[in-house]
Specification:
The chain is of the alpha/beta class. 40% of the residues lie in helices and 15% in strands. The chain has a seven-stranded mixed sheet, with helices on both faces. The termini are far apart. The mean pLDDT is 90.
Amino acid sequence: MPEKNIKVIIPAFNEQNSIAKVVQDIPKEWVNEIVVVNNNSQDSTAAVAREAGVTVLDEPRQGYGYACLKGIAYISSRQPQPDIVVFLDADYSDYPEELPALVQPILEEDVALVIGSRAIGDREKGAMTLQQLFGNWLATRLMGWLYGVHYTDLGPFRAVTFSALTKMNMRDKTYGWTVEMQLKAAKLGLKTAEVPVKYRKRRTGVSKVSGTLKGTILAGYKIIWTILRYR
């Protein structure tokens, strides 16, 4: 177990069937607190998370970024503040047990931001849609051309030092959250790394982004707009 204070933020929208599995698989000896942000769920996500014994916050404003910002505001207001913050989705597509590998570059190599890359990891067939794969490819290529940084993924499973997260002054409320973090790391000259992570097909429900045509179009537009905006 590391000596660093590590906190996990999990945005969750209608994930009552998966949130307990996500919490269960997080290596508890590695983290100081798990924070689930209930993002206007219409099901029992919040109740299930509370039963799992974690901190649950309510964010009624719909949006992935809104949920992440709520979690950041909470951990920022409490003492001691964390050294490392890990972001993880609530749909059980990621493998939470890989958290130690995700934070290792921060602990051992003075890295500020680590992206769990599904592109270079072991991805279950069908876990990502064609539009997700193309969107990741296009977004990471644009970031390389415009910002001179090399990323292979915009994966939601990521770790960042709290000091770097504070400097980033994150603002996006919806789909542009992940790419905003990566762009700001580049603009601030922060040391970044990617580690391969496994990724599986979600077993219940559909993706809030790639599972619908509207979500796919809105996410794609927001990601591209964010890349160009910060340039």
